[in-house]
Protein backbone atom coordinates (compact mmCIF):
# COMPACT_ATOMS: atom_id res chain seq x y z
CA UNK A 1 0.00 0.00 0.00
CA UNK A 2 1.45 3.42 -0.85
CA UNK A 3 2.24 5.67 2.08
CA UNK A 4 -0.22 8.55 2.49
CA UNK A 5 0.91 12.18 2.25
CA UNK A 6 -0.12 12.66 5.85
CA UNK A 7 2.73 10.47 7.01
CA UNK A 8 5.39 12.20 4.91
CA UNK A 9 7.57 15.14 5.82
CA UNK A 10 7.29 18.43 3.92
CA UNK A 11 10.58 17.62 2.18
CA UNK A 12 9.15 14.34 0.85
CA UNK A 13 5.67 15.58 -0.12
CA UNK A 14 4.87 15.23 -3.82
CA UNK A 15 4.64 18.27 -6.09
CA UNK A 16 1.32 19.10 -7.72
CA UNK A 17 2.43 17.16 -10.83
CA UNK A 18 3.21 14.04 -8.77
CA UNK A 19 7.03 14.47 -8.69
CA UNK A 20 9.16 14.82 -5.60
CA UNK A 21 12.54 16.35 -4.90
CA UNK A 22 14.26 15.08 -1.81
CA UNK A 23 15.40 17.59 0.75
CA UNK A 24 13.27 20.51 -0.54
CA UNK A 25 9.84 21.74 0.43
CA UNK A 26 7.48 23.05 -2.24
CA UNK A 27 4.15 24.79 -1.88
CA UNK A 28 1.83 23.62 -4.65
CA UNK A 29 0.45 26.48 -6.77
CA UNK A 30 -2.97 26.48 -8.36
CA UNK A 31 -3.01 25.18 -11.91
CA UNK A 32 -4.36 28.54 -13.17
CA UNK A 33 -3.81 31.97 -11.67
CA UNK A 34 -6.94 34.12 -11.32
CA UNK A 35 -7.46 36.43 -14.29
CA UNK A 36 -7.62 40.18 -13.53
CA UNK A 37 -11.12 41.54 -13.65
CA UNK A 38 -12.00 44.51 -15.89
CA UNK A 39 -12.29 46.63 -12.73
CA UNK A 40 -8.76 45.71 -11.64
CA UNK A 41 -7.38 46.37 -15.14
CA UNK A 42 -8.99 49.83 -15.20
CA UNK A 43 -7.62 50.59 -11.74
CA UNK A 44 -4.11 49.53 -12.82
CA UNK A 45 -4.34 51.70 -15.96
CA UNK A 46 -5.44 54.72 -13.93
CA UNK A 47 -2.63 54.16 -11.42
CA UNK A 48 -0.07 53.93 -14.25
CA UNK A 49 -1.34 57.16 -15.82
CA UNK A 50 -1.27 59.00 -12.48
CA UNK A 51 2.29 57.86 -11.78
CA UNK A 52 3.36 59.02 -15.26
CA UNK A 53 1.85 62.47 -14.64
CA UNK A 54 3.58 62.71 -11.27
CA UNK A 55 6.92 61.74 -12.83
CA UNK A 56 6.50 64.43 -15.49
CA UNK A 57 5.51 67.04 -12.89
CA UNK A 58 8.62 66.34 -10.81
CA UNK A 59 10.91 66.52 -13.86
CA UNK A 60 11.94 69.93 -15.12
CA UNK A 61 14.20 70.72 -18.04
CA UNK A 62 16.51 73.70 -18.53
CA UNK A 63 18.06 73.07 -21.92
CA UNK A 64 20.62 74.94 -24.00
CA UNK A 65 19.80 76.18 -27.49
CA UNK A 66 21.98 75.19 -30.44
CA UNK A 67 22.27 77.29 -33.59
CA UNK A 68 22.70 74.87 -36.49
CA UNK A 69 25.19 76.26 -39.04
CA UNK A 70 24.09 76.75 -42.64
CA UNK A 71 24.16 73.34 -44.28
CA UNK A 72 22.48 71.07 -46.79
CA UNK A 73 19.99 68.36 -45.70
CA UNK A 74 22.59 65.56 -45.30
CA UNK A 75 24.68 67.94 -43.20
CA UNK A 76 21.69 68.69 -40.98
CA UNK A 77 21.03 64.98 -40.37
CA UNK A 78 24.70 64.61 -39.39
CA UNK A 79 24.46 67.56 -36.96
CA UNK A 80 21.48 65.94 -35.24
CA UNK A 81 23.35 62.68 -34.70
CA UNK A 82 26.51 64.45 -33.56
CA UNK A 83 24.51 66.43 -30.98
CA UNK A 84 22.84 63.24 -29.76
CA UNK A 85 26.26 61.61 -29.34
CA UNK A 86 27.42 64.64 -27.37
CA UNK A 87 24.55 64.44 -24.87
CA UNK A 88 24.92 60.67 -24.65
CA UNK A 89 28.54 61.28 -23.61
CA UNK A 90 27.45 63.58 -20.77
CA UNK A 91 26.69 67.05 -22.20
CA UNK A 92 23.63 69.02 -21.11
CA UNK A 93 20.21 68.72 -22.77
CA UNK A 94 19.97 70.56 -26.09
CA UNK A 95 17.26 71.95 -28.39
CA UNK A 96 17.51 73.36 -31.92
CA UNK A 97 15.43 74.52 -34.88
CA UNK A 98 16.38 74.56 -38.56
CA UNK A 99 14.78 76.01 -41.67
CA UNK A 100 15.45 73.67 -44.62
CA UNK A 101 16.78 75.71 -47.56
CA UNK A 102 15.57 73.22 -50.20
CA UNK A 103 12.92 70.45 -50.46
CA UNK A 104 13.99 66.90 -49.65
CA UNK A 105 12.35 63.61 -48.70
CA UNK A 106 13.59 61.69 -45.68
CA UNK A 107 12.62 58.09 -44.88
CA UNK A 108 12.79 56.35 -41.51
CA UNK A 109 15.78 54.20 -40.61
CA UNK A 110 14.21 50.86 -41.57
CA UNK A 111 12.01 51.96 -44.46
CA UNK A 112 12.29 51.14 -48.15
CA UNK A 113 12.87 54.22 -50.28
CA UNK A 114 11.19 52.57 -53.28
CA UNK A 115 8.04 51.88 -51.23
CA UNK A 116 7.78 55.20 -49.44
CA UNK A 117 8.76 57.63 -52.24
CA UNK A 118 8.23 57.98 -55.98
CA UNK A 119 11.93 57.84 -56.73
CA UNK A 120 11.71 58.74 -60.43
CA UNK A 121 9.47 61.73 -59.73
CA UNK A 122 11.82 62.89 -56.98
CA UNK A 123 14.80 62.58 -59.34
CA UNK A 124 13.04 64.61 -62.04
CA UNK A 125 12.16 67.31 -59.51
CA UNK A 126 15.69 67.37 -58.09
CA UNK A 127 14.44 66.36 -54.65
CA UNK A 128 16.92 64.07 -52.84
CA UNK A 129 15.58 61.06 -50.93
CA UNK A 130 17.61 60.66 -47.73
CA UNK A 131 17.59 58.32 -44.74
CA UNK A 132 17.69 59.40 -41.12
CA UNK A 133 18.86 57.41 -38.11
CA UNK A 134 15.53 57.43 -36.25
CA UNK A 135 12.35 55.47 -36.84
CA UNK A 136 9.00 56.87 -37.93
CA UNK A 137 7.55 57.50 -41.36
CA UNK A 138 8.56 59.33 -44.51
CA UNK A 139 8.17 63.09 -44.74
CA UNK A 140 8.66 65.84 -47.28
CA UNK A 141 10.67 68.66 -45.76
CA UNK A 142 11.61 72.03 -47.17
CA UNK A 143 11.01 75.77 -46.91
CA UNK A 144 7.91 76.38 -44.79
CA UNK A 145 8.48 73.26 -42.68
CA UNK A 146 10.39 74.12 -39.51
CA UNK A 147 12.54 71.23 -38.25
CA UNK A 148 13.15 71.00 -34.52
CA UNK A 149 15.12 68.56 -32.42
CA UNK A 150 15.88 67.68 -28.81
CA UNK A 151 18.79 65.70 -27.41
CA UNK A 152 17.81 64.74 -23.86
CA UNK A 153 19.41 62.60 -21.20
CA UNK A 154 17.53 59.48 -20.13
CA UNK A 155 17.19 59.17 -16.37
CA UNK A 156 16.32 55.69 -15.02
CA UNK A 157 12.72 55.75 -13.81
CA UNK A 158 12.17 59.21 -15.32
CA UNK A 159 9.61 60.26 -17.95
CA UNK A 160 11.97 59.39 -20.83
CA UNK A 161 12.85 55.92 -19.57
CA UNK A 162 10.62 54.16 -22.13
CA UNK A 163 9.71 54.87 -25.77
CA UNK A 164 6.03 55.33 -24.90
CA UNK A 165 6.78 57.49 -21.90
CA UNK A 166 9.12 59.72 -23.92
CA UNK A 167 6.53 60.16 -26.68
CA UNK A 168 3.86 61.10 -24.15
CA UNK A 169 6.05 63.43 -22.11
CA UNK A 170 7.73 65.30 -24.98
CA UNK A 171 4.65 65.68 -27.16
CA UNK A 172 2.55 66.87 -24.22
CA UNK A 173 5.16 69.54 -23.52
CA UNK A 174 5.28 70.53 -27.20
CA UNK A 175 1.48 70.80 -27.33
CA UNK A 176 1.44 72.96 -24.20
CA UNK A 177 4.14 75.21 -25.66
CA UNK A 178 2.28 75.74 -28.95
CA UNK A 179 -1.31 76.14 -27.76
CA UNK A 180 -0.95 79.76 -26.53
CA UNK A 181 0.61 80.75 -29.86
CA UNK A 182 -2.07 79.03 -31.93
CA UNK A 183 -4.97 80.03 -29.71
CA UNK A 184 -6.61 76.61 -29.96
CA UNK A 185 -6.14 73.10 -28.55
CA UNK A 186 -3.31 70.90 -29.83
CA UNK A 187 -3.87 67.14 -29.76
CA UNK A 188 -1.53 64.14 -29.74
CA UNK A 189 -2.82 61.54 -32.21
CA UNK A 190 -1.50 58.25 -33.54
CA UNK A 191 1.81 57.47 -31.86
CA UNK A 192 3.71 60.71 -32.49
CA UNK A 193 1.54 63.22 -34.39
CA UNK A 194 0.52 66.71 -33.30
CA UNK A 195 -2.84 67.82 -34.69
CA UNK A 196 -5.52 70.49 -34.56
CA UNK A 197 -9.24 70.16 -35.25
CA UNK A 198 -10.33 71.00 -38.79
CA UNK A 199 -13.56 72.75 -39.88
CA UNK A 200 -15.42 69.41 -39.90
CA UNK A 201 -14.06 68.39 -36.50
CA UNK A 202 -11.63 65.82 -37.86
CA UNK A 203 -8.05 66.22 -36.71
CA UNK A 204 -5.47 67.55 -39.16
CA UNK A 205 -1.77 66.78 -38.78
CA UNK A 206 0.78 69.57 -38.61
CA UNK A 207 3.71 67.69 -37.07
CA UNK A 208 5.16 64.20 -37.35
CA UNK A 209 7.86 63.11 -34.90
CA UNK A 210 10.31 60.29 -34.26
CA UNK A 211 12.97 59.30 -31.76
CA UNK A 212 16.27 57.49 -31.64
CA UNK A 213 17.56 56.12 -28.38
CA UNK A 214 21.08 55.48 -27.19
CA UNK A 215 22.32 54.25 -23.83
CA UNK A 216 22.15 57.54 -21.91
CA UNK A 217 20.28 59.94 -24.22
CA UNK A 218 17.66 60.16 -26.92
CA UNK A 219 17.06 62.24 -30.02
CA UNK A 220 13.49 63.42 -30.48
CA UNK A 221 12.83 65.41 -33.63
CA UNK A 222 10.05 66.44 -35.95
CA UNK A 223 8.76 68.90 -38.52
CA UNK A 224 6.23 71.67 -37.89
CA UNK A 225 4.21 72.55 -41.00
CA UNK A 226 3.95 76.33 -41.20
CA UNK A 227 3.74 77.18 -44.91
CA UNK A 228 5.06 74.13 -46.76
CA UNK A 229 4.08 73.78 -50.43
CA UNK A 230 1.75 70.75 -50.59
CA UNK A 231 1.14 70.99 -54.35
CA UNK A 232 3.69 68.32 -55.34
CA UNK A 233 3.45 66.08 -52.28
CA UNK A 234 1.24 63.43 -53.92
CA UNK A 235 3.57 63.43 -56.92
CA UNK A 236 6.59 62.75 -54.73
CA UNK A 237 5.09 60.56 -51.99
CA UNK A 238 2.62 57.65 -52.30
CA UNK A 239 0.19 56.92 -49.47
CA UNK A 240 2.27 55.67 -46.52
CA UNK A 241 2.81 51.96 -45.94
CA UNK A 242 1.31 52.42 -42.47
CA UNK A 243 -1.10 55.09 -41.36
CA UNK A 244 -2.75 55.87 -38.00
CA UNK A 245 -6.41 55.05 -37.63
CA UNK A 246 -7.44 58.69 -37.38
CA UNK A 247 -6.13 59.39 -40.91
CA UNK A 248 -8.99 57.27 -42.31
CA UNK A 249 -7.47 56.97 -45.79
CA UNK A 250 -7.33 60.72 -46.41
CA UNK A 251 -4.95 62.08 -49.06
CA UNK A 252 -1.92 64.13 -48.09
CA UNK A 253 -3.71 67.37 -48.95
CA UNK A 254 -6.84 66.43 -46.96
CA UNK A 255 -4.87 65.14 -43.98
CA UNK A 256 -2.23 67.84 -43.46
CA UNK A 257 -2.47 71.50 -42.46
CA UNK A 258 -0.10 74.46 -42.40
CA UNK A 259 -0.32 76.49 -39.20
CA UNK A 260 0.38 79.76 -40.98
CA UNK A 261 2.31 81.31 -38.08
CA UNK A 262 5.63 83.12 -37.98
CA UNK A 263 8.63 80.74 -37.67
CA UNK A 264 10.34 83.12 -35.23
CA UNK A 265 7.29 82.96 -32.94
CA UNK A 266 7.34 79.15 -33.09
CA UNK A 267 11.03 79.09 -32.17
CA UNK A 268 10.32 81.38 -29.24
CA UNK A 269 7.43 79.19 -28.06
CA UNK A 270 9.59 76.06 -28.21
CA UNK A 271 12.41 77.73 -26.27
CA UNK A 272 9.94 78.92 -23.62
CA UNK A 273 8.32 75.50 -23.40
CA UNK A 274 11.67 73.84 -22.75
CA UNK A 275 12.98 76.54 -20.39
CA UNK A 276 15.97 77.41 -22.54
CA UNK A 277 18.51 79.09 -20.27
CA UNK A 278 21.29 79.93 -22.68
CA UNK A 279 23.16 79.23 -25.90
CA UNK A 280 25.33 76.17 -26.47
CA UNK A 281 28.44 77.50 -28.16
CA UNK A 282 30.76 74.51 -28.68
CA UNK A 283 29.54 72.57 -31.69
CA UNK A 284 30.81 68.98 -32.13
CA UNK A 285 32.52 69.62 -35.47
CA UNK A 286 34.61 66.46 -35.30
CA UNK A 287 31.54 64.36 -34.50
CA UNK A 288 29.73 65.99 -37.41
CA UNK A 289 32.60 65.14 -39.75
CA UNK A 290 32.56 61.52 -38.61
CA UNK A 291 28.78 61.25 -39.09
CA UNK A 292 29.09 62.63 -42.61
CA UNK A 293 31.91 60.24 -43.50
CA UNK A 294 30.27 57.15 -42.01
CA UNK A 295 26.62 57.78 -42.96
CA UNK A 296 25.00 60.92 -44.21
CA UNK A 297 27.60 61.90 -46.78
CA UNK A 298 27.52 58.45 -48.38
CA UNK A 299 24.98 57.57 -51.07
CA UNK A 300 25.16 53.91 -49.98
CA UNK A 301 23.71 54.82 -46.59
CA UNK A 302 20.69 56.57 -48.03
CA UNK A 303 20.08 53.86 -50.66
CA UNK A 304 20.65 50.88 -48.36
CA UNK A 305 16.97 49.83 -48.62
By CATH reckoning, the class would read Alpha Beta
Rg, Å, rounded: 26 Å
Number of strands: 11
CATH topology: BirA Bifunctional Protein, domain 2
Tell me the strand order in the biggest sheet. Answer: 7-8-9-10-6-2-1-11
Distance between the termini: 72 Å
Low-confidence stretches: 1-30, 45-59
Task: Give average pLDDT, whole number.
Answer: 85
Structural class: alpha/beta
Number of helices: 10
Rough outline = globular
Q: Can you identify the CATH superfamily?
A: Bira Bifunctional Protein, Domain 2
The largest β sheet comes out as:
8 strands, mixed
Strand percentage lies at: 15-25%
Q: So, CATH architecture? A: 2-Layer Sandwich
What is the helix/strand order? HEHEEHHEEEHEEEEHHHEHH
Count of the separate structural domains = 1
The percentage helix is 25-40%
Amino acid sequence: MPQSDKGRSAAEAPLCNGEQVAGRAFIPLPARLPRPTPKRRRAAAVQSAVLAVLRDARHTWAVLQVSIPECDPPGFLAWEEALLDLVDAGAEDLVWCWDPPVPFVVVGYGQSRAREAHLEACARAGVPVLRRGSGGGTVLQGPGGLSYGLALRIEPGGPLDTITGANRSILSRMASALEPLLGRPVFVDGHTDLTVAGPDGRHLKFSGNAQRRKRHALLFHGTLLLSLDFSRMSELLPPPSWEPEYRSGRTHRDFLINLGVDPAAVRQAICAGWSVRGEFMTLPTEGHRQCMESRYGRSEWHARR
